[in-house]
């Protein structure tokens, strides 16, 4: 028994060290990206002036650029990446499918549909638009749970695949609905809606950062409490039930947390495509095992890098972060579709 346990212990040790190294490097990397987002752009901000502006000194022009434009954008990018990374990892782990993410199964499109409906029929903006986007995401999740049957006592592993397939169908229907609604808007409203749906950090403010920060302060501890139950769920529904875990209620709770994280972020930034999809698998490859904290950090890195690239790498054209994340995520999705086995055997 001890001879068999020794190799497993030795195998876990390098992966633990690897995960610790990657997690240790993530903090300085995020700080460096925030600094780049604040300093680099048109105009460039000298480091000494940025430090003086951060310390509260009023420097004409630069204080506004640092404190009211770039730093709120960097903070919103960081928080949005964390939320999307956690949301996508919950779905991928719970549904045992790397292709399951809010982008693929229609949750972000549900939030977008809620926002576009509010624009089309109520000329909503600001706080009303925020709540409509949130309700759209939650309504989509409720529809998926009802149709896939994951909330009932008979839900099982088969419901996981059903949930993903139903989500893909719902996403297609929501995409058609959004396209129709856009034809009913005025040119200006349709342009505003399209700009929002691409996913942009250009309208980031401290108020929006506070909304995301408040949501994460509440939802991350809830998720931390549910992660232990999620680990038990990965043993299989029968085993989890025999250990006394209320499987349907746990699934619903995890999905609601993940949907709320995603929908709140979409309401603030628009649907930043594929961030939730990319963060979990990249974190797992870096650490050698699934990691929620690292997935959150990877999501933040992706959004910050996408925003920095969109603002600075295309000459005089500034691209929204959602365009860059979409360009990164589409080929990764194709690669995942190619390498994901169609059955449970093999890799």
TrEMBL record:
CDD domains, sorted: TM_ABC_iron-siderophores_like
Gene Ontology annotations of biological process type: siderophore-iron import into cell
GO molecular function, one term: transmembrane transporter activity
Keyword Cell membrane set for record: yes
Membrane topology qualifier: Multi-pass membrane protein
Domain of life: Bacteria
Cellular localisation: Cell membrane
Keyword Endoplasmic reticulum tagged: no
This protein's GO CC annotations: plasma membrane
Residue spans crossing the bilayer: 20-40, 71-91, 103-122, 128-151, 163-182, 209-232, 253-279, 291-309, 321-338
Keywords tagged on the record: Cell membrane, Membrane, Transmembrane, Transmembrane helix, Transport
The family this protein is said to belong to: Belongs to the binding-protein-dependent transport system permease family. FecCD subfamily.
UniProt xrefs under PANTHER family: FERRIC ENTEROBACTIN TRANSPORT SYSTEM PERMEASE PROTEIN, FERRIC ENTEROBACTIN TRANSPORT SYSTEM PERMEASE PROTEIN FEPG
Protein name in UniProt: Enterobactin ABC transporter permease
Organism listed in the record: Brachybacterium vulturis
